[in-house]
């Protein structure tokens, strides 16, 4: 068995016996044990009682975290003419049409969010096999297929988080950095959980939100009381 490092041992000891804690305690634990040499991302994972293979149990949505994510979001926009100019003025990192399609097809994907005007979707549609698996495909349900590219770009740059349930029924996202004030991290966690709660699909049966956990990039995780996360405690 591999010998654990001093930092890993200390973190595990700090988390020992801690389960279903309050959001406040979870943030303090995870933030306090994020001791890597870089500013670790604080990540949340929510296990849902849904089967996303059924269309009426798909969970997806977006939320503007009150304190941002701490991450610099690189935004690409498929647009032409005035809308392309609007996207550039709003701060988009990459703007194009067929030229951008060719860049993406070549495997060069230097962006974290992809936005498109509706008239660009025939072009963007050809990139489904490339963008889809990376959860980068523009979608009108989360506001990334829109004529209002200014708002979409500014929202992405301002800390908006998109989420989509995975095959195993898990939704996860980064909700800040270890350097954030604990209160700000707590507010972000509650906002994210609230958004997932509001995205409950019509086909969900039984317990919708089964488990909530918080971790940092390099640290162990801790489970949060679902009641604490949803404000029902």
UniProtKB/TrEMBL annotation:
Q: Where is the signal peptide?
A: none
What SUPFAM superfamilies is this protein classified in?
Ribosomal protein L1
GO MF, one term, reads: rRNA binding
Looking up Pfam families in the UniProt record yields: Ribosomal_L1 (PF00687)
InterPro entries xref list: Ribosom_uL1_bac-type, Ribosomal_uL1, Ribosomal_uL1-like, Ribosomal_uL1/biogenesis, Ribosomal_uL1_3-a/b-sand, Ribosomal_uL1_CS
Key words, A-Z: Repressor, Ribonucleoprotein, Ribosomal protein, RNA-binding, rRNA-binding, Translation regulation, tRNA-binding
A GO cellular component annotated for this chain's UniProt record is:
cytosolic large ribosomal subunit
Could you confirm whether the keyword Membrane appears in this record? no
Spell out the Gene3D superfamilies in the cross-references: 3.30.190.20, 3.40.50.790
Q: Name one GO biological process term.
A: translation
Q: Which PROSITE patterns match?
A: RIBOSOMAL_L1
Q: Does the keyword rRNA-binding apply?
A: yes
The record's NCBIfam families line, in alphabetical order, gives: rplA_bact (TIGR01169)
Can you tell me which family this protein belongs to?
Belongs to the universal ribosomal protein uL1 family.
This protein's assembly is summarised as:
Part of the 50S ribosomal subunit.
Q: What does this protein do?
A: Binds directly to 23S rRNA. The L1 stalk is quite mobile in the ribosome, and is involved in E site tRNA release. Protein L1 is also a translational repressor protein, it controls the translation of the L11 operon by binding to its mRNA.
What name goes with this protein?
A: Large ribosomal subunit protein uL1
Species of origin reads Pseudooctadecabacter jejudonensis
Q: Gene name, please?
A: rplA
């Amino acid at each position: 068995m591999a010998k654990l490092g001093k930092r890993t041992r200390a973190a595990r000891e700090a988390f020992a016996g801690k389960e279903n804690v309050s959001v406040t305690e979870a943030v303090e634990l995870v933030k306090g044990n994020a001791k890597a040499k870089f500013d670790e991302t604080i990540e949340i994972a929510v296990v849902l009682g849904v089967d996303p293979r059924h269309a009426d149990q798909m969970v997806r949505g977006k939320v503007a975290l009150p304190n941002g994510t701490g991450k610099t979001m690189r935004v690409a926009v498929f647009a032409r003419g005035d809308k392309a100019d609007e996207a550039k003025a709003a701060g988009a990192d990459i703007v194009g049409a067929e030229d951008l399609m060719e860049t993406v097809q070549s495997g060069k994907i230097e962006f974290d969010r992809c936005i498109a005007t509706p008239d660009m979707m025939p072009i963007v549609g050809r990139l489904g096999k490339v963008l889809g698996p990376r959860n980068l495909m523009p979608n009108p349900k989360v506001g990334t297929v829109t004529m209002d590219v200014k708002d979409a770009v500014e929202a992405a740059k301002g800390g908006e988080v998109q989420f989509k349930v995975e095959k195993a029924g898990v939704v996860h996202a980064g909700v800040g950095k270890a350097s954030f004030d604990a209160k700000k991290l707590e507010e972000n966690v509650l906002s994210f959980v609230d958004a997932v709660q509001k995205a409950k699909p019509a086909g969900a049966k039984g317990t919708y939100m089964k488990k909530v956990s918080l971790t940092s990039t390099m640290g162990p995780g801790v489970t949060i009381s679902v009641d604490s996360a949803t404000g029902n405690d």
